[in-house]
C-alpha cells in the first residue's frame, strides 16, 4: 500500500465528510451540517492527512498552540484502510509538528477507547465538557 502523508494539505468539506462516513466516525459528527463541517476543516490549525492517490483515506485534525497543548478533535481512517498502521502514523506525524513539551489531548469515541491506551495514551478522569446548550451562570 503506497500511502502518502501530508501536513496541512487542503481538504475540502466534501472530502472530510466522505472520509468520516467511510470511517464510521460520521455517526458521531454533524456531517449533515455543511456550515459546521466546513468550519471544522477551515479553522483547525494542524491537519495531517493520508492519501491513496487522490483519495483521502485518513485524517488527524487538531487545534494547538504547538507548545503546551494540542487538542485532537478527529482521528478517522477509512474502514478499508483500518488496522494497517495509518492511524498510528497520523499521530506520529501530528506529534512531530509539536514542541517537545506539548501534550496531545482528546476525547475518544467509544469504539476507539482501548486504541489510545494500546498505543500509549494515559487516561485522564478529569476531562470535562461543557455542552453548548449549558450556560455558565454569571
Ligand atoms: C480507531 C482508529 C483511528 C485506529 O486507526 P487504525 O489505523 O485503524 O489503527 P492502527 O493501524 O494505527 O492500529 C495500531 C494498533 O492499535 C490496534 N488497534 C486498532 N484499533 C483498535 C481499537 N479500536 N482498540 C484497540 N486497539 C486497536 C491495532 O491492532 C494496532 O496494534 P499493534 O500495533 O499492536 O499491531 C480507526 O480504526 C478509526 O478511524 N476508527 C473509526 C473512527 C474513530 O472511532 N476514530 C476515533 C475518534 S476519537
Automatic annotation (TrEMBL):
Stretches assigned to the N-acetyltransferase domain: 3-138
GO molecular function: acyltransferase activity
Main enzyme class: transferase
Pfam families noted in UniProt: Acetyltransf_10 (PF13673)
CDD domains assigned to the protein according to its UniProt record, in alphabetical order: NAT_SF (cd04301)
UniProt EC number: 2.3.1.-
Annotated keywords: Acyltransferase, Transferase
Protein name: GNAT family N-acetyltransferase
Amino acid at each position: 500500500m503506497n500511502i502518502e502523508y501530508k501536513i496541512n494539505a487542503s481538504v475540502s468539506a466534501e472530502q472530510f465528510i466522505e472520509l468520516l462516513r467511510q470511517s464510521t466516525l460520521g455517526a458521531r459528527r454533524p456531517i449533515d451540517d455543511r456550515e459546521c463541517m466546513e468550519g471544522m476543516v477551515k479553522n483547525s490549525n494542524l491537519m495531517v492527512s493520508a492519501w491513496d492517490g487522490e483519495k483521502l483515506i485518513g485524517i488527524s485534525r487538531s487545534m494547538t498552540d504547538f507548545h503546551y497543548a494540542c487538542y485532537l478533535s478527529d482521528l478517522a481512517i477509512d474502514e478499508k484502510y483500518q488496522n494497517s498502521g495509518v492511524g498510528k502514523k497520523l499521530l506520529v506525524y501530528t506529534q512531530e509538528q509539536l514542541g517537545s513539551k506539548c501534550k496531545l489531548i482528546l476525547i475518544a469515541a467509544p469504539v476507539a477507547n482501548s486504541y489510545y491506551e494500546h498505543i500509549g495514551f494515559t487516561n485522564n478522569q478529569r476531562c470535562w465538557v461543557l455542552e453548548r446548550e449549558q450556560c455558565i451562570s454569571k
